[in-house]
Amino acid sequence: QVQLVESGGGLVQAGGSLRLSCAASGGTFSTYAMGWFRQGPGSEREFVAAISWSGGTIWSEDSVKSRFTISRDNAKNTVYLQMNSLKPEDTAVYYCAAERFNLGGVSTVAARYRSWGQGTQVTVSS
Predict the structure, then answer these.
(1) Tens digit of each residue's pLDDT (9 = 90 or more) over 9-41
(2) Mean pLDDT throughout 92-115?
């Protein structure tokens, strides 16, 4: 399984932007679908966005679709989450996840991903 390390979290005012990065090692990154999930205080982990191994399939949760962009650079073994127009309700620990799915698909279900990073905290102040 691939090892994942997130970075780029921090404290930002509402309306601001952050770019999260997730660096992978120990596996063939270009064969993995990648997902971003988040978990707020007292909440379950929820899907944010996912991208297929080729970048050809991207899914995003409706509440972030117009504000967040997932992308990947297979040459750098890194997946990104560009977050714009941040809101206080975006405050959470953000996790990246990796999995090989059949037919190059992606999943919005956290339980289907076997590799996870340690998470990075994003705090949006009002």
Answers:
(1) 999 999 999 999 999 999 899 999 999 999 998
(2) 94
CB atoms < 10 A from the CB of 111, how many? Answer: 7
Is pLDDT at 97 greater than 90 in this prediction?
yes
Residue 82, pLDDT above cutoff 90: yes
DSSP helix/strand/coil, 103: helix
CA distance linking residue 93 with residue 115, whole number of Å: 16
Shortest CA distance to 47 belongs to which of 31, 65, 32? Answer: 65
Residues 6+ apart with CB under 8 A from 107: 33, 35, 50, 99, 101, 113
Q: Which of 48, 39, 42, 31 is nearest to 91 (CA)?
A: 39
18: Cβ contacts below 8 Å, ≥ 6 apart? 8, 9, 10, 12, 83, 86, 122
Structure tokens at 29: 């990154």
Q: Which of 3, 99, 117, 93 is nearest to 40 (CA)?
A: 93
DSSP H or E segment with residue 61? none
